[in-house]
Amino acid sequence: MDKKILKKVGIIIVAVIVAFGAKLYFDKKEELKKEEQALGNREKIFAPMAAEDNAILQYFKEKFPERKVILACEEDITDDQLKDLLVIYKENDLTRIIAICDNGDETYYISPEIPAPVENQTIRYKNIDKEAEIEFIITGEKKGAVGYAIYRMIDGEIKDLFGENMEDCC
Ligand SMILES: [Ca+2]
Ligand SMILES: [Ca+2]
Prior knowledge:
single chain; alpha+beta; five-stranded antiparallel sheet; 33% helix; binds calcium ion
């Protein structure tokens, strides 16, 4: 091979390496962008903490002053167009979840409580079967053990429909 050709081949190799490097750089940037979007979506996926002046939250605090609210999230969980409230709270070292439902006549229905994860709790509302009552997914941890379960209000009770490792984190 003469020197001219060698030089051309050399230039092409360098160009390929530069292009490849640039591609890696942009791929990485794209990846970071996606991660950022996922983090932004996190806020949208998980139900936010109810406002301090939420009427049901105030009712709960007045009725159960000994219960420390960890997470309270508003949603209509009884499919009657009236907003209800799921409250995860701590009382005597026990972490529980309870549903308080608006009866529509300035009274509230209080469901029996069930065990809740002790740390890093999240509530996500999603009508999984796209029918009637909205389902809710509760996740959490206990000493690093992660669990979750899907629930629905049935006959005034929080019913566990499906779950995994929930007993390890409650
Ligand atoms: Ca309701
Ligand atoms: Ca449903």
